[in-house]
Each structure stands twice: as structure tokens, then as C-alpha cells.
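Batch job 17 of 40 flagged for manual review because the log was empty.
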Amino acid sequence: MSRIPAAARARYHEEMRAAKIAADPAHRWAHLERAHILSQPDPWLHTRNHVGMLVLAVQQRDRREALGQVVRIAVAAPGSLTGRYPEGNTGRASIGLTQQLPTPPDLAELLRPEQ
């Protein structure tokens, strides 16, 4: 059984696709960040998102971001499996690993448990 609602999973995939085709790196990051917020409850999606972030950081030759993503790849699945992840965190290296942030309302709605 999925650890995230079906609508959140679908939006995650939409955000990841949008990140791949966006021409502007800032837009790519924005889509990856939104996908990250949605992916956190699911170990596989969460890790996959950080791999996408690492790829973009390497393409941009951003060493700090790339190193931050390597660390996040290592802790993403265990954090998701134990439920120990900071809600609303965008997944970027400039944000602390445990720093909670407000979840955008449209994403919070998608993450509400299905009833």
C-alpha cells in the first residue's frame, strides 16, 4: 500500500516530468522542490527526488548542492520509513536537513489522508 495518497503521487510524477522539460533551471528547481514535499512519506519517491536534484546540481556544477544531495540521498529512505522527515522541507542543500517549512496549501491538501 502506498504511503502517500494517490492524488499526491500523481502530482509528484507531474512535477518530476515538468522538472525534466523546464528550460529555465530555476523552474526545474521549483518543480523538484514541490515534488520533494510530496515525496517525503514514500522512501522510493523521496530518494528518487534527491537523485533528480543531484543530477541538476551536477549539471549546474554546483558542488555545495551536489554534496548536500549526496547526504540527502543517504538519509531519505530511512527518514521516510521512520516518519522522521521535516514536513514542508524543499530538499535543497540551503535548507537544514531537519528544518520544517510551511507546506504550500495545494500540496497540503493532496497529502491529507484519503478517506
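Reviewer: the log was empty due to a logging misconfiguration, but the result itself is present. The chain has one domain: 6-111. Unflagging and moving on to job 18.
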